[in-house]
Design goal:
GO cellular component, one term: cytosol
Protein name: Putative DEAD box family helicase, phage associated
Number of helices: 14
Keywords: ATP-binding, Helicase, Hydrolase, Nucleotide-binding
GO molecular function: ATP binding; DNA binding; helicase activity; hydrolase activity
Pfam family, one: UPF0547
Structural class: alpha/beta
CATH topology of the largest domain: Rossmann fold
Distance between the termini: 41 Å
Number of strands: 15
Radius of gyration: 22 Å
Oligomer: single chain
CATH class of the largest domain: Alpha Beta
Number of domains: 2
C-alpha cells in the first residue's frame, strides 16, 4: 500500500499486481481511503455487479466513516465521497455526462482497463480533471489478447508474488495432478482464436461420456471430500459434467453467464452452505468470485494464456478464516488438470509486461514427483508439496 501511495504522489497513475487471495480489495480500499482523507472524491470501478457490491462492503470495513454511493443498473448516485460503479453502466453517455469531477479513479481487475468502455470513462475523468490519479489492481496484468496496459499505466508500484504469499501462509500451495485421458495431442492441435482456444473444438474433444466418467472417478479418488469448482469449455459440456457428478452421488450445480442475478445467488449460496459440493461453470467464476473453503479446482479445458489459468487455479488458493468457517481445515488446493494448461505454462508466477508481450512463450517442462505425484517444474530440486528431494546434479531442460 505504501509503495502505491508513494507512486501516486509523484505520478498520475500506477498499477499494483498481486495474486488472487492477496487482499487486493483491502489494499485498494486502504489506498482509496488514504487518498480521499482530505475530502477528495473518488470512484471505484468494477466490471460486474457482484464485484461492485463486494468492493463497497469491504471498503466500509476499512473506512467505516467514509460515505459511499453506487452507480449500477438500478441506482445512479454520486452522493458519497467514494462511489462504486459498474463500468459497463457508467460508460454509457448519459451516465458519463452526470459524473462529477473526480480526484481518483480506482480500477479493480485492471487488466480490463484498455477496453473501450474503460477508456471512455478514463477520458471523461481526465477531461474534467487533468490532475486526477488512476490506480489499478490486478492479479493478471498480461491480457490474453496481448493488449498491453501501457495506454493506461506506465509503471508498476508493487508486485507481490504467489510464492511469497504461500511461504508466508497467506495462500495455500496448489497440488497439481496432470491427468492424461488420451486427448493431450488433440488439444494441442486445437485452433487458437484471438481470445483463447476454440472452445467449440475443445468441447468436441472433452465433452464425451467416457472422459467425464474418468473425471468423476479421479476426483472421487483424489479430492472426493473437497468443495470443488470445475471449469468447462461450453455450456453443454458444463451441464453434462454436473449431471455426471450428481448421478454418481456428488451434489453438483451449474452457474451460467445468462443466469439472472437472483438465480445465480441461490446456486452460489447453496455451494457456500455445503448443500452443493461441486460447482461447475464455463467462465463465470474465473474472476471476482471466491469461497475460501474451495480446495479443489478441476480444469476440463486448456488455456492458451497463462493469465486465464492463474485466474482459474486462484479460486482455490485462499486460506480459511476459522472465525468465518469454523471446523474447516485447509492446507492445500488440489488441481486436477485434464487438459494441457499446466504442461503449457508450468509455474503460476507471471512477470509483468505493460506492453503486452508474452514473457514466457513456449511449453514449460515439468516432472512428476514420485512420492506425491504432483506435477512440478522440471528444474525443482525439492518438491514444494511433500518435500521429496531429487537426486543428482544439474537438471537438463530438453530443447
Amino acid at each position: 500500500m505504501e509503495r502505491s501511495l508513494a507512486a501516486l504522489s509523484t505520478r498520475d497513475n500506477t498499477l499494483g499486481v498481486a495474486p488472487t487471495g492477496a487482499g487486493k480489495t483491502i489494499m485498494l480500499s486502504a489506498v482509496t481511503g488514504r487518498m480521499t482523507g482530505d475530502g477528495a472524491k473518488a470512484c471505484v470501478l468494477a466490471h460486474r455487479d457482484e464485484l461492485t457490491s463486494q468492493n463497497r462492503a469491504k471498503f466500509a470495513r476499512v473506512n467505516h466513516r467514509t460515505e459511499t454511493s453506487v452507480v449500477d443498473a438500478t441506482t445512479k448516485s454520486w452522493n458519497g465521497q467514494v462511489t462504486f460503479a459498474m463500468a459497463p453502466t457508467l460508460a454509457r453517455a448519459a451516465n458519463l455526462a452526470a459524473m462529477p469531477k473526480l480526484d481518483l479513479l480506482v480500477i479493480d481487475e485492471a487488466h480490463h482497463a484498455v477496453a473501450e468502455s474503460y477508456r471512455r470513462i478514463i477520458g471523461r475523468v481526465r477531461d474534467a480533471n487533468p490532475e486526477a490519479r488512476v490506480f489499478g489492481v490486478t492479479a493478471t496484468p498480461n491480457r490474453g489478447d496481448r493488449k498491453g496496459l501501457r495506454e493506461v499505466f506506465d509503471n508498476v508500484a508493487d508486485q507481490v508474488r504467489l510464492g511469497e504469499l504461500i511461504a508466508s501462509g497467506h495462500l495455500v500451495p496448489p497440488r497439481t495432478f496432470v491427468i492424461d485421458v488420451g486427448v493431450q495431442e488433440q488439444l494441442r492441435a486445437v485452433r487458437k482464436t484471438a481470445d483463447d482456444y476454440d472452445m467449440g473444438a475443445v468441447a468436441a474433444i472433452m465433452n464425451r461420456a467416457p472422459i467425464t466418467e474418468e473425471v468423476v472417478r479421479h476426483w472421487e479418488e483424489k479430492a472426493g471430500n473437497r468443495q470443488t469448482v470445475v471449469f468447462c469449455s461450453t455450456v453443454a459440456h458444463a451441464m453434462n459434467v454436473a449431471t455426471a457428478f450428481n448421478e454418481a452421488g456428488n451434489p453438483a450445480a451449474v452457474v451460467l453467464g445468462d443466469m439472472g442475478s437472483t438465480e445465480r445467488k441461490i446456486v452460489l449460496e447453496a455451494y457456500a452452505s455445503g448443500e452443493v459440493q461441486v460447482i461447475v461453470n464455463v467462465a463465470v467464476l474465473t474472476e471476482g468470485w471466491d469461497h475460501p473453503p474451495t480446495s479443489c479446482v478441476v480444469l476440463l479445458r486448456p488455456s492458451s494464456y497463462k493469465s486465464t489459468m492463474i485466474q482459474m487455479v486462484g479460486r482455490g488458493l485462499r486460506t480459511v478464516d476459522p472465525a468465518e468457517h469454523p471446523g474447516v481445515v485447509k492446507i492445500d488446493c488440489i488441481v486436477l488438470d485434464f487438459g494441457i494448461s499446466s504442461l503449457t505454462h508450468g509455474t503460476l508466477e507471471q512477470d509483468v509486461d505493460l506492453d503486452g508481450r508474452d514473457p514466457t512463450p513456449g511449453e514449460a517442462p515439468t516432472k512428476t514427483c514420485p512420492d506425491c505425484e504432483a506435477e512440478i517444474p522440471l528444474a525443482s530440486r525439492q518438491c514444494p508439496i511433500c518435500g521429496h528431494e531429487f537426486q543428482g546434479g544439474t537438471v537438463t531442460t530438453p530443447l
